[in-house]
Amino acid sequence: MVLRGIAACTLTAALLAIGMEEYGRQASPEARSPSFPIIEAAGKQTPKLHRAAEAEPIAANPSKDESSARHVSAPTGETAAATIAAQDCPKQPSCPEGMVEVQGEYCPSVLHRCIRWINQSSDRCTEYERTSRCFGKPTPKRFCMDRFEYPNQLGALPEVGMTWEEAKAKCASLGKRLCTNTEWTLACEGPKRYPYPAGYDRGACNYDRPYIMPDDAAFRNPATRPQEIRRLSQSEPSGTRSECVSHYGVYDMTGNVDEWVVNEDGSPVDRPYESGLKGGYWGPVRNRCRPMTVDHNAWHVGYQIGFRCCADLPPSAAESAEGSSRPGHC
């Protein structure tokens, strides 16, 4: 009897010890979280508990060992409804073929400092200080833009000699529209707001070619205009210069040919006109992302003037979700 009592007491003590050890493991934050990263900030090491949102993504087809090693909490309530809705929402349509998506923030005024001039009086700079400064409140924009100048084909010469109205009609016939001046500028500058599409140096694109004096009578005459354009033109087939491309993948934005845009602050009847020109052409002119020529009306025609088209893009899934406070709506 005495031996059995001692054995029972010993067993009870052992069980209590095991229970306390298990309780200690459950109470420890380190034990509760299998990952315990150290995040460095301002020279300090701050412990941060692992959260489910910070876990690495699960493989699309995890192996049996991976599946058993991971624990994923199933969503409940509104979280589950939102998760199911996100899975059911259709994928947002992309830009039409031949166009690229441009998404970023347009800055109303940008400071660039030229450190090497070609000709300061004509505002032609070959190299800028490698910094840009934005003044004013940036405006978010998201749209589609033709990758190349019209007819938007790699290896094709840009079409020129059209009025602003004719360029608008060409874009409309394709289900597109002329780009606005702010869209055009954003697509050219990129998120770092470069002065040239490829950066702070001038040399990547087709410009600074010698000026050829036009024969105005030959250009005004419809019968001789094509021949005169061929004599004057120093444009290149689209995409010829692989380095003349913006952050968004748009080619030949500066140089080659001038491009008609919609000047959002312009007038249809007086300067500054709503018919703006961006990018410059092959000649010795400014040829930067930001400047715009606004003194040509909508029926002006130039041997160096072309265009490219833009199009609206449906809002992203995230933007659509802001329009509804109920889970389950795309």
Describe this structure in words.
The chain is α+β, with helices and mostly antiparallel strands and 330 residues long. The protein has a domain at 99-312: paralog of FGE (formylglycine-generating enzyme), CATH 3.90.1580.10. Helices cover 26% and strands 18% of the residues. It contains 9 helices and 14 strands. The protein has helices at residues 2-27, 29-32, 64-69, 77-88, 164-173, 181-189, 216-220, 225-232, 317-321; strands at 38-41, 44-47, 99-106, 109-111, 114-119, 124-128, 133-135, 139-146, 177-178, 258-262, 275-278, 292-293, 305-307, 309-312. A 4-stranded antiparallel sheet has the order 3-8-14-9. A 4-stranded mixed sheet has the order 12-11-10-13, with helices on one face. The model is unreliable at 1-86 and 320-330 (pLDDT under 50).
Rounded to an integer, what's the Rg over CA atoms?
31 Å
Provide the residue-averaged pLDDT: 79
Overall form: globular
Structural classification: alpha+beta
Q: What percentage of residues falls in helices of 4 or more residues?
A: 25-40%
Spatial arrangement of strands, main beta sheet: 3-8-14-9
Structure summarized in a few sentences:
This protein has helices at residues 2-27, 29-32, 64-69, 77-88, 164-173, 181-189, 216-220, 225-232, 317-321, and strands at residues 38-41, 44-47, 99-106, 109-111, 114-119, 124-128, 133-135, 139-146, 177-178, 258-262, 275-278, 292-293, 305-307, 309-312.
